[in-house]
Write a structure and sequence with these properties.
By secondary structure, the chain is mainly α. The chain has two domains: 1-48; 61-138, Winged helix-like DNA-binding domain superfamily/Winged helix DNA-binding domain (Arc Repressor Mutant, subunit A), CATH 1.10.10.10. It contains six helices and two strands, in the order H-H-H-H-E-E-H-H. The protein has helices spanning 2-48, 60-80, 86-93, 97-110, 138-142, 145-151; strands spanning 113-120, 125-132. Strands 1-2 form a two-stranded antiparallel sheet. A hairpin with a 4-residue loop joins strand 1 and strand 2. It is rod-shaped, with a radius of gyration of 30 Å. It starts with a helix and ends with a helix.
Amino acid sequence: MTGEFEQEVHAAFQIFIAAVTRAAERTAVETIRSACARASLRAVRVVGASDRGPPPGKSMARRAMDDAAVRMTVVAYLREHSGTSPTRLGLTLGINHGPLRRYLRELVDDGTIRIEERFVGFGRQRHRACFLVEHVNPSAAESPAAPAEAMA
């Protein structure tokens, strides 16, 4: 009787191990497939991020929305980290060098940011730093003078 019981327990244990092994294999295959899919999407994004125009199947309006979102991200980052170099900006935000130069050039042309060039360190190495341009509201600048004129 004990022998039969041990055989049944052993058979049940073998079935359990086989089921766990199949589940682990399915999970591993799904993980590998999703990792490959993410890697191929990243490769497509890097190729599509160049200045050669929108990737196939991407409309110009969609590209314009993406560009606006990237510019807003750059401005928000510079608001928190004033004086950041373009290299650090690209590395931190994950933007390739070519498109980043275009975004920065557009923001400089708009008057949103300024890029200062400094020569620092041994050998006077060139260093660029990006800063937000503080816009002065003309009506706010005149308003403190208005009460002074009213008193006179």
